[in-house]
Give the backbone structure.
Amino acid sequence: MTLVVVGTFALSGPLARLTWLGYLGLTALMLRIPGAGRWHRLLGSTALLAELLWLLAPQTLRLAGLPLLLVFSLFVGRSLRLLLQALARERTVEGRVLAGATAGYLLLGIAGGLVLTVLASLIPGSFRDSVSGEGLIMPALGSVAQAGPLWDHGFQRLNYFAFVTLSTVGYGDVIPTAPVVQVVCIALSVLGPLYLALVLGVLISRLGSGGPGTHSPGSDSPGSTADDDS
């Protein structure tokens, strides 16, 4: 699902609005994380409602993005924590483990893109193009169905910028100007390497141990034989 959402960033025109369906679907999917508990499902349902409210709210309810920022950030953070705990319980590095680790990284970038998008709508002029000097224009809330190419372009640029910041590549073509947005960008640039460090630590430890049933040198009991080891 994270790959589908990232893939929709390449769409243009009216098709670009399919990204919002991907956001809603991804949020609904994270509600079904095994062992998440009632609190996680409640937080996720609230995040889903906040997304719908923000998308459908008129311009007069622009501040509807504030609860979305808070609830969605908490929900994604809790989901990532559950994912890391699940990865830590795995004993071998398999395809599904690598897929889960990759999905977590993509989820972090997708969440960062949504947060930056909401901030750009709350604080006009939060971003500008370093080449043209023009600001990224976001539409009035509640006008998603009538969004034009400028909005599609701005939305795609913000999601692209979120992943560029997360990976600490920093091409410099988009510049955050609002102080709040700059702080969020700093947080993304810290969380990206931190997530990779945690996941790589877990995966490398599993590769080093060789999974269950592996004997390390000197671990055999005095009475063990070569036949037993085989």
